[in-house]
Amino acid sequence: MGNVYVAASRNARVFEYTSDLMLVSSWTHTSFGEEKGAPGQSHAVGPAGMVFDASGNLVVAGVDEFCVFSKPGEELGCHPKIKSQATENIIFDIERNLYTTTATGGTDEVHKYDSYYQHVTTFQLPTGNLTGVTCDPDGNLYFASQLGNNTSRIYKVDKTNVANVLDQFDI
């Protein structure tokens, strides 16, 4: 089993744990904000979304850029985001495109980047509380949203036309 990585927005750090949850390492980066004593910095400033790319590198979303690490604390490079915003949910699809959403309570925007981190498009879903994103084996994207009143919605998005919602259901 591999290690577990946790982005600590308020601490401006990424933590690495074993599968038994023993701390292995932690590191910070200038794009993660500023390390401060308790209660720390605003959660909107620090690292939040993380995902592994096809090469096994850890991609961490800061407010202004995506930073790619070959191993803990070893930066391969950083790539600017289309706009500064707290990014909570990020995922690569099967074609290596990167999709991002803002932190819960943020905008209803989804940003798509190519495998070189170049912005491709931005589209909106009919909500402002996107809370998750995943991709199925066929490449379809699913976005989760909190609607309020203990209701959430899942949106299935067309992989060839990401602005097209194919289906939605409440949970």
Give an overview in words:
Strands 4-5-6-7 form a four-stranded antiparallel beta sheet, with no helix packed on it. The chain has a four-stranded antiparallel beta sheet with strand order 8-9-10-11, with no helix packed on it. The protein has a four-stranded antiparallel beta sheet with strand order 12-13-14-15, with no helix packed on it. The protein has strands at 4-8, 13-17, 23-27, 50-52, 58-61, 65-71, 74-80, 87-92, 98-102, 109-113, 119-124, 130-135, 141-148, 151-157, 165-170. With 171 residues, the protein is mainly beta. It is built from no helices and 15 strands.
The counted number of beta strands is 15
Mean pLDDT: 86
* Helix share bin: under 10%
Our estimate of the beta-strand percent is over 45%
Largest sheet: 4 strands, antiparallel
Give the key terms.
single chain; 171 residues; four-stranded antiparallel beta sheet; mainly beta
Task: Summarize this structure briefly.
The chain is mostly beta strands and 171 residues long.
Secondary structure blueprint with pairings:
Elements: E1 4-8, E2 13-17, E3 23-27, E4 50-52, E5 58-61, E6 65-71, E7 74-80, E8 87-92, E9 98-102, E10 109-113, E11 119-124, E12 130-135, E13 141-148, E14 151-157, E15 165-170
